[in-house]
Write a structure and sequence with these properties.
The chain has 12 helices and 12 strands. By secondary structure, the protein is of the alpha/beta class. It is globular, with a radius of gyration of 21 Å.
């Protein structure tokens, strides 16, 4: 009897193109789900008959309350080598092996700049006007050269975002709770003395922090109030770092020039969510990791992980 493998959140229906699933067909039946399962009950029902699950990033949580209801599950594969929404202790208690894959930091860097540049030059408004016979030139672009880019976080992604900012001739500053002057100098940027100074003094602010107890709600109403009315905020990291209600209020009241957002508290974003119609917002449906190269890695290595598990020697184990 073949094992059954569920591939979650295959929104584009392309998972089969990026991994050699046929090489497993004698031993594993693979089923791809294009719809998102929104709660534990839906997941428990949908996954009850599967031995293997492949999940993308941290969109689907695997708490004990779910893992306890999946007695057939033996292998859980997540894209990336870090996942904060899997209960590893519960996985071990239920006899579930957890593995990850490599993940490139290049796609989220590129999307960060896609959003920032799109905001700065009003690309959505101008393109829409052009294609609908609207006004010819209705916005005035925000310059990058000589402006200050403030980065919250200077890890692999933040450092690469900084390099692009420097190439544009921007003045780049960074802050995080553990950031040192030596690290800032290594990347070639200034160390902001405080979070508040960085927010108040930047023309563009971009978030590149991991979500944790210290960063959850890091930018709330008081912090967003420090931004200039001409400033732009970009978040391609995790939604919970920025208070979503406070951001929505700042956009609706025109207290900041705009925001570029790729991550949300609820994903997929409900059809009636106010962020779908918020002014001054350039939003994308969590595309930061979605690229040809990353999908080739995710699904290609997922197949490798399954092969290794079937051979009795799991690889890329998490945590």
């Amino acid at each position: 009897m073949r094992l059954r493998c569920a591939v979650l959140d295959d929104f584009q229906g392309t998972a089969g193109e990026f991994g050699d699933w046929s090489s497993l067909s004698d031993e594993v039946e693979t089923v791809s789900f294009r719809e998102h399962f929104g709660d534990v009950d839906e997941l428990a029902t949908a996954l009850a008959d599967f031995d293997i699950v492949v999940t993308l990033r941290e969109r689907v949580a695997f708490p004990a309350s779910l893992l306890d209801r999946l007695p057939r599950l033996r292998l859980l594969i997540a894209s990336g080598m870090r996942n904060s929404v899997i209960d590893y202790a519960a996985a071990e208690a239920n006899g579930v092996t957890v593995c990850g894959t490599a993940s490139s930091s290049a796609p989220p860097v590129e999307l960060t700049w896609t959003l920032l540049l799109g905001l700065a030059r009003g690309l959505v408004e101008e393109s829409t006007a052009l294609r609908t016979n609207g006004p010819w030139q209705s916005t005035v672009g925000a310059d990058l050269y000589g402006r200050r880019l403030g980065l919250l976080g200077l890890g692999k992604i933040g450092a690469r975002v900084a390099q692009v900012g420097l190439a544009f001739g921007m003045r780049v500053s960074a802050w995080s709770q553990n950031l040192t002057k030596e690290r800032a100098e290594e990347v070639g940027v200034d160390l902001a003395p405080t979070k508040e100074e960085l927010l108040a003094g930047s023309d563009f602010v971009s978030v590149h922090l991991a979500l944790g107890d210290r960063t959850r709600g890091l930018l709330g109403p008081a912090e967003l109030a420090l931004l200039k009315p001409t400033a732009y905020l970009v978040n391609t990291s995790r939604a919970a770092i920025v208070d979503q209600d406070a951001l929505l209020a700042a956009l609706q009241e025109g207290r900041i020039a705009g925001a570029g957002v790729d991550v949300f508290d609820i994903e997929p974003l409900p059809a009636d969510h106010p962020l779908r119609t918020a002014p001054r917002l350039l939003a994308t449906p969590h595309l930061g990791y979605v690229s040809y190269a990353n999908y080739t890695t995710y699904y290609g290595q997922a197949v490798e992980n399954i092969r290794a598990f079937l051979a009795g020697s799991p690889i890329r184990r998490l945590p």
